[in-house]
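Practice record 12: protein with MTE.
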Amino acid sequence: MARRWQNNLDHSLITPKSAFLNRRQIMAGMGALAAGGIAGPALAKLGAMPSDYSTDMEPNTLEDITTYNNFYEFGTGKADPANNAHTLTTEPWSIMIDGLVDNPGEYSMADIMEGVELEERIYRFRCVEAWAMVVPWAGFELADLLNKVGVKEEAKYVAFETLVRPEEMPGQRRAILEWPYREGLRMDEAMHPLTIMATGLYDEPIPNQNGAPIRLVVPWKYGFKSIKSIVKISLTAEEPPTSWNMANAREYGFYSNVNPNVNHPRWSQATHRTIGGGLFAKREPTLMFNGYENEVASLYEGMDLAKLY
Ligand code: MTE
């Protein structure tokens, strides 16, 4: 039996619907202006629509976002992905969706993108290493994809895997992690409207170093949950194994929600450094659930947050 998940978030709590519609109309008007040759903002390439879920914080520059990365398949240095990821072939691309779904199978990017309206989601992004950025993703809700393939009643978790292709991913020629990179979410986390599959950045196709052609983004969790270049999604009844937990269970748990009150065993999580702020920039306080507490705290009611690291 397929079960259709409902968003448990009241949109009107975030932005009144009228304001949202107005913004859409403004965007449409901007497009018309640009098409008519009147000076105005450049025409968006992906055409992602603004979203109520975006923060109004100033996004980091494209340069910051695409040159300071973690993507161990291309090396462990922050500049390695930008230097090495051009070797990755992202076309053709498909995702195997299997396990407890009504319509398992190999879905091409065209299948996945069919009927999808991209949204721009400007999200805070907080790495477990205590640095942060603000990123304007273009993407769509993971829930839309899961509802498209049909989630079976028994499915409780979603597991994700990254491509394994050592010929194109030099980091995979070494056992830095046990490949493929794996991540997972509980079903309600996967179905939450903040959880997106991103295919773009600054309204352009997402660069390889950021997880082309399609990656997960879960803004209230540490960045390592946001797995890149996904080729497999499995719906499971049991909590799936995840890369960082497999590598070091003492330091990384399954949930990994951003929590300034629970320190990493080797450093504090109370504050972070914002990338692009310069060497002497003041550290900023890290917020519970990375600032998304109102939206997601209810998912963890009755659970000991200190134990969910
Ligand atoms: N996904 C894969 N496949 N491999 C990785 O090494 N690193 C994770 C996450 N997703 C990683 C990954 C970590 S630790 C972080 S902080 C983010 O990607 C970084 O995303 P960004 O480089 O787009 O900022």
